[in-house]
Amino acid sequence: MICHTPGPELLAVTPSNRAQYLHDDIIHLRQAQSEHAQFRAILARFCDVLQVRDLLAEIVDREEVRRFLVNQVMEVAPSEPLGGELYEIPGDQLIRRFIEGKEAPRGPISQLLHKVSYELPPLPNLFFTRDAAMVVNDGVIIGAMRYAVRWTEELLMKALFLYHPLLGNGGFIYDGTEERRSDYTVEGGDVLILRPDLAMVGLSERSSPAAIEGLVEGLKEKAGIDHVVVVVLPAESPAIHLDMIFTMIDRTHCVVYPPYFFGPQRLPALHYRPGGQGVTAHDGIFSALKQVGVELEPVWCGGTHPTLQEREQWSSGCNFVAVRPGIVVGYARNEGTMRELQDKAGYRIVDATDFLAGKALVREGDKAVIAFEGSELVRGGGGGRCMTMPVCRDDIW
Fold first, then answer.
1. Running DSSP on this structure, what letter comes out for residue 389?
2. H helices of the chain, where?
3. Average model confidence (pLDDT) for the chain?
4. What is the distance, to the nearest Å, from the Cα of residue 180 to the centroid of all Cα atoms in its chain?
5. Cα 51 vs. chain centroid, distance in angstroms?
6. What Cα–Cα distance (Å) separates residue 15 from each residue in 123, 148, 167, 330, 383?
7. Distance between CA 190 and CA 211 in Å, rounded?
8. To 5 degrees, how large is the angle CA 351–CA 301–CA 342?
9. Sorting pLDDT into bands at 50, 70 and 90, what band is 397?
C-alpha cells in the first residue's frame, strides 16, 4: 500500500486559495499528521505500508531518474534557472522541492499586496495517493489530473512505477502524463475494480468521456477487464469522484449515498463492453451490476435521514478502504453511517485506539469497521480509500 504523510505542503493552503488547491478548508498540519499516523498504523496490521517520500529517496540519485523527473517537471513549470537548480541539489532537497514547491521571489508589488506565488507549485493533495496512480491486475494507470496544481503528482508516481525495483509491473494501461488536454482527464477516485474482469468508472467533473473511452480499451487489452460499468455523475455535485458516493466493503456489501441510487435523482449507468462490443444504458447502477453478475446489498451513508446523508457524504462517509473483505477503515465522525453498518449489516464498530492497543481484536472472517479520527484530514476532501494506493492484493474471488 502506498501512502503519503501530509507535510509542510499543506501550509501553502489558505482561506483565499483553498479552492485553487481543491481543499474544502485549511488543515491543521500537526493534527492531520497525528491522524494519518494512526491510519497508517492500522493499515500496517494488514499490509506493508510504503511512503512516497521514502520510495523516491531510494531512486532519486540515479541519473536517469533525476533526468526524467526534472525534464518532466519543467513541462509543468518551465524555468531554466529552476531546472538548473533541480539538477544540482541533493536528492532529499529535490524531493522536498517537488512536494513542497518553491516560492517565487517576492518583488515590490508582491510584497506590497502580500501575495505569494510559486515557481514550482506545492502538492497539498498528494496524500490522496489513489488519484494519481492505480494498479489494475499487473498494469498501472497514471492519472490525468483535471487541475494543473496536481500535475506533478502524476510525474512522481510515474517515476516510481518506471524505476523503483519494488514496483515492477506489466506496463502502463493509461499514461496521464502524456495528456495536457482539458477534455482528457481521469483520476483514481473514479476507477473501482470490483472483480478481476470488472471495473466501475465514474464520469465526473474530474474524469472525462474521451479519457474514459481510452482507459476502457486499455483495461481490456492490458489488464483483462471484460466489463466496465460507467456511472454518470451530475455536472454539479458534492461528489467529485465515484468513490465519494460508492465503495465496496466486502463481496456483497457496498456503502452508497442514497439519493444517487434510489429515487428520482438515481444516476444512470452504462454497461460498456471493450473491443467495439457496444454500450447498454441502464436506469440505475444496481441494474447494470446485476447484468454482469454482481448483486450487492447497499448500506446507506448517513442512515435514513436526508440531513445526515448529506452531511456524511460531505465528510467522506462513503469512502472506506477495505483491508480484507468485510474489514474496512473509515472516519469515526460519520456516526450515522457507522450505526447503519452495525444495525443493518452486522458490522462491529471498533475504535482505532482500542484496536492498536490490542483491547479490541479483529479476526479472520469478522465483519468490522475500524473507526479512526480524521477531522483534519477530511478537510482535504477525501477519506480512507483516497489516502491509499494498493499495489497488490490477494485474489478474493
1. B
2. 29-44, 52-57, 63-76, 80-88, 91-100, 108-113, 151-163, 209-223, 285-291, 306-314, 335-345, 352-357
3. 92
4. 20
5. 15
6. 16, 19, 38, 27, 21
7. 12
8. 45
9. low
